[in-house]
Design goal:
Blueprint: H1 2-19, E1 32-41, E2 44-53, E3 63-68, E4 82-86, E5 89-93, E6 101-102, E7 106-111, E8 118-127, E9 140-146, E10 151-153
Length: about 150
């Protein structure tokens, strides 16, 4: 009997301590999308994109990743809110995105290391400011951009 009494007392302590632990806060959910164009002329690609948030929660800040299929030139003249991540990738802050809101347009010109006839541009959310985005169908895409001077929309 003594064994059961101790086990029962310990079970009560464990359950009592477990009951004091609060449930984790739910993570706010947002739905980011990036729409824009990419134009290539020689060794230069200009990407213009606008971030959008369909909500339901606001995003305090987000980062979009732009990755090319070919290496970028060593020196770049990137906008203030953009930085090189590696030899093919640039990341840019979008700023705050209100729920059901449109963010500020980003214009990101890059120079390529060479002059290919085409590149593939991958656009995707890199960070969503503490929110979660379960629908990646509209925040991750690939765009084939030809060296024609034409705008390729995404």
């Amino acid at each position: 009997m003594r064994t059961w009494g101790v086990a029962g007392a310990l079970a009560g302590v464990v359950l009592g301590a477990g009951a004091a632990v609060a449930a984790p806060e739910p993570v706010p959910e947002a739905d980011l999308a990036f729409h824009g164009t990419a134009v290539m002329n020689g060794d230069t690609v200009v990407v213009r994109l606008t971030p959008r948030n369909s909500g339901p929660a606001a995003v305090p800040d987000a980062t979009v990743r732009l990755r090319w299929s070919v290496p970028l030139a060593g020196e770049q003249q990137l906008p203030a809110r953009c930085a090189r991540e590696d030899d093919r990738t640039v990341v840019c802050g979008t700023g705050r995105l209100a729920a059901s809101g449109v963010g500020e347009r980003l214009d990101v010109p890059v120079r390529l290391k060479e002059e290919p006839s085409e590149v593939t541009l991958e656009v995707g959310a890199a960070w969503v400011g503490g929110t979660t985005d379960r629908d990646h169908a509209n925040d991750r895409m690939q765009v084939l951009v030809l060296d024609t001077g034409d705008s390729y929309a995404f």
